[in-house]
Amino acid sequence: MATLKEIKLRIESVKNTRHITNAMKMVAASKLRRAQENILQARPYADHINDMLKTIKLKNTTTSHLLLTDISGEGKTALIIVTSDRGLCGSFNSQIIRKAQLYIKKNSNVDIICIGKKGFGFFKTHSKKVIDSYINLFNEMDFSVSKDVAEKILNLYLQENYIKIDVLYNEFKSAIQQDIIVKQLLPINPIESENILKLDFLYEPDEDTIIEELGRKYIHVDIWRIMLESSAAEQGARMTAMDSATDNAADMIDNLTLFYNRARQAMITKEIIEIASGAEAIQQ
Amino acid sequence: MDKLHLEIIQPTKIKIRDDYDHIIVPGVDGDFGVDLNHTPFITKIRPGILQLYKGKKIDKYAIHDGFVTVENNIIIIVCDIIENENEIKYKRAEDSKNRAEKRTKSSGKDIDFRRAELSLKRALVRLQLSVK
Question: How far apart are CA A42 and CA A141, in angstroms?
Fold first, then answer.
């Protein structure tokens, strides 16, 4: 049986763990709030660009700009996998990696682009088709950072003849729920909207230039939104994971304390018996 | 409605949401003024100075890229960067101008000329605004 001292040390160490997981939970909660604010603030910009693109696409059924036109037939595709840079967030990363593996099995000829260290760490050893990776971006999330990523992806798409680029990421539903989503990033497919601008517009300079630039902006803000969603989902997952870790630590402390008290009681009983039997021996 | 409603939307926030009398926007094909009942219009913005007239007051902003939509006296500008005079640091703008100039003049292969040129344009616009 463990000695009293050993049990005491054990209790101390579990208490420390509980402190840490509790602190991590708080930090995750505040980061989650910030990410949520950013998501809300990005919405008007994203909506307006979507409306403009949709308008142009509806008016000009003849345009065949590369960013907007579906390419039929066979060809190589790319998958962007968004994971987190850090661990300790429950099944956040493992779930997305599992989904990614299914996707890769289903579609042949898929190149992989990783955003986030965890996904990259997995796929660089399990797949030979990782063509690009962006790690340690989530610490200092900024629009200009995501814009650089978006530009690189755009250039890849325009130069390498991909028929499409999909993105796989966690969408934030609530602090305890994340949904894994596969979305087509390129070619752009503007979502339906009620605010389609109805009038006949004059364009300056010409439509193709406008579409090209608008398309680029659309991708910039889409990548920004996806990264924010993923980061919010990550923090939510971490919050839940750390919350149950804190609960588990508390349970463990309870059990250990009980164990400690029992051991102490047993020792006291043993000592009393010794004294009592010693005294009896003297009397006889 | 006898005022122009202007919204300037950035990816991270809505910078301005206000009514103005007259607005001058630096479009790619030249500056253009917007008054009441302007024809519906979409254009790209070039680096330049955006001027907003409200009564006798003129607000000036350095703007570097983006799009403007004019429809029914509602003007929506989406852009990544926009700054007013107070937000521009003269010293910093001058430094970045010199840096960009040096880069456009050098002949190294690893230099992205398009980027250098853009950053030079941005610096010039900033300087123009902060001198005035």
Answer: 13
Number of A:B CB contacts under 8 A?
A: 71
Task: Give the H/E segment covering residue A66.
Answer: none
Report pLDDT for B65.
85
Q: For the domain with range B4-84, which CATH number is right: 2.60.15.10, 3.40.47.10, 1.20.1290.10, 2.120.10.30? A: 2.60.15.10
Task: Identify whether A114 is a catalytic site residue.
Answer: no
The first and second tokens of residue A49, run together, are 């660009």
* Token pair in block for residue A185: 């990033």
Residue-wise pLDDT tens digits, A205-234: 777 788 888 888 889 999 999 999 999 999
Q: What average pLDDT does this structure show over B59-84?
A: 88
Complete domains list, chain A, with CATH: 4-20+244-277 (1.10.287.80), 25-241 (3.40.1380.10)
Is the pTM for the entire model greater than 0.95? Answer: no
> Does the domain made of B88-131 have the CATH classification 1.20.5.440?
yes
Contact B78 A41 (CB under 8 A): no
Distance from CA of A225 to the nearest CA of B (A): 10
Does the pLDDT value for residue B104 go beyond 80? Answer: no
What residue type is assigned to position B36 of the chain?
L
How do residues A163-217 score in pLDDT, each as one tens digit? 889 999 999 888 888 889 888 888 888 777 766 666 667 776 777 788 888 888 8
A48-60 CB burial, b ≥16 within 10 A, e <16: bbbbbbbbbbeee
- Residue A194, classed as helix, strand or coil, is coil
Q: Does B37 touch chain A (CB under 8 A)?
A: no
- Measured between beta carbons, the chain B residues lying within 8 angstroms of A42 are 11-12
SS3 state of residue B88? coil
What is the pLDDT at residue A265? 94
Domain positions in chain B are 4-84, 88-131
Contacting residues of A for B13, CB less than 8 Å apart:
41
Backbone angles phi, psi at A198, to 5 degrees: -90, -20
pLDDT at A195: 67
Of A202, A209, A217, the CB nearest to B41: A202
Note the pLDDT of residue A246: 95
